Every structure is written in C-alpha cells, then in structure tokens.
Amino acid sequence: MNQILGKPKSKCWQRGDSPGAPVPPPSPRYSLASTRAHRHRSSVAKLTHHPLHKPSEMSRHVCLAAAALMAMLCLAEAQRRLALPDPRSCANRVRHSTYRDARGVLHSYFFSWEHAPTRNLEVDWLDARNICRRHCMDAVSLETPQENEFIKQRIARGNVRFIWTSGRKCNFAGCDRPDLQPPNVNGWFWSGSGAKIGPTTQRNTGDWSYTGGYGQAQPDNREAAQGNDESCLSILNNFYNDGIKWHDVACHHVKPFVCEDSDELLNFVRSRNPALRL
To answer: How far apart are alpha carbons 134 and 263 in whole angstroms?
Structure first.
C-alpha cells in the first residue's frame, strides 16, 4: 500500500486530531489492531516465560521467533498511527481535479476510483487518511456546501457506492470538553482540517441522511450494539434510497476514498525541502 501513489517512508506522527484544540490530544490507535497486538503479546509472553521452560537450543529458537513476532506486531501497531508525508510522493502526487471553494481556498483532489492502481482499492478509514497523508493530502474535509456538492457530483459520475471522508467523532482521550458533549451531537469534526462540524441536531449544518439501516436519521451509531462505535463519516450513494448523503460508519469498514490537499502537510514538507516543487 505504501507504494500505491509513490514511495513514502515508514515514519509516523503521534499527534492527535481533537477539533479546535491548539495542542490536540494523542490520536487514538485503531482498537482492533491494539487488541490483536495485545493478544499476541500475551501469547508470546506465555510462550517465553513459562515456569517450566528450560534453556535449550530449541528455546533459543523459540525466543528468536517470539522476538521477531513481537517486532512485527510493534511495527503493525505503529503503522496504525498517522503517517508523515514523504517529500518525493508529495511532489509527484496525482491530482485529478482542483476546486476553489466559496472562501477562495484552492485545493487539488484525488479520487481513488479514477486512478488505475487504486481503482478497486477499498481500505479502512485510517488507511485512507494515511495513503493521502503520505502525499501531502488528507481525506477530504467538506467544509462548505459547495465543496460537498462538488464531491457528490464526482461520486455520482463515477457511480461509486460509498467513500471515506476525514469526518470523525471525538470519542477518545481529550474529548471530554463540555462543548463536545454529547459526542454524537457536538463531537463531529473534520480531522483533515480540524474544523468542527455543526451540531447534528441542526440539519442545515451538514448533509446527514434522514434514514439508515434502522430507518433513523443519521448519525444513529447503529453498530454500537455490536460493540462498534460508528465514529467515522462516510458518504453513501443512495444506499438506503436516500440520495448521496452523510452517514456515520464504524471506522474498520473498507471503502474507496477522496484525498484533498493538506495545507498543513504541504507547509511542513515545504519548510524542510525549500527547493522541492510541490
């Protein structure tokens, strides 16, 4: 996946994405990956520290294998964090379209289904962000009605069933601020830009669907009963005969994605690579 749009380095940031915070809290790791890593670490610990385990040639091989497994698990867990941009990938990023919104902000966009190497690629929410971020972009943030319509038209033209955006519900450490309560109403924000999304009870501040799997207005956190918090924002294309609308979806689901230029990441790379043409 690291070489889909370029050849990024395997570095990562550990900064968070809390909306409107000058110093964001740590970004949450993907719970499934963390749980899986913890489970494997426990198994490795039992294997290498059993009270009846005697030193032997075989035990040394087991310990080496266990160490290798631990290294792989640590790498896999680290990869669940936000990725750093790769300068070369940023300079060579694919740009399918540009759009200037009502505020005068001009950004380039990448649509995964319009690029041959990613035409059939579907990834979870964090992987979508990281593919974008390695190229000085981020998953799209729909901050104006005009930008929202621009993206919806592209979805309709490509006959795409659903996509990931950077929309996120603030339901992790650091999200206990009064202005973010309750999270399903006041906790939504665009993680790509840090801008807050209006209260979900004010239907004119977003493009949430009026229905979903349970026939309830979005966001409905429908998978909460299964232990999956629907904390990521996806655009679904008439999935419930409701048109092209916003839906809250559990972040582990896989979908195509849209990338948008990130001024923050472009400035970050530009400041360290002044001769690089971005």
So the answer is: 13
What stretches of the chain show up as alpha helix (H) in DSSP?
A: 31-48, 57-78, 87-91, 125-133, 145-158, 183-186, 263-272
Query: First-to-last CA distance in the chain?
Result: 22
C-alpha torsion angle, residues 33, 36, 39, 40 (rounded to 10): -100
- Residue 101 pLDDT grade (very low, low, confident, very high; cuts 50, 70, 90): confident
User: Cα–Cα–Cα angle for 73, 76, 78, nearest 5°?
Assistant: 110
Q: What is the band of 102 on the pLDDT scale with cuts at 50, 70, 90?
A: confident
**Could you report the per-residue pLDDT of 7-37, keeping only the tens digit for each?**
333 333 333 455 554 323 333 333 323 333 3
Helix (H) or strand (E) holding 166: strand 162-169
**Residue carrying the six token digits 């940023």:** 90
**Which tokens is 276 given?**
């690089």
Q: Which of 168, 164, 166, 186 is nearest to 177 (CA)?
A: 186
Q: Which residues of 95-120 are buried (b: 16+ CB within 10 A; e: fewer)?
A: eeeebebeeeeebbbbbbbbeeebee
Locate 175 and state its tokens.
């999200």
Cβ atoms within 10 Å of 180's Cβ, excluding its own:
22
Sequence-separated (6 or more) residues with CB below 8 Å from residue 204: 198
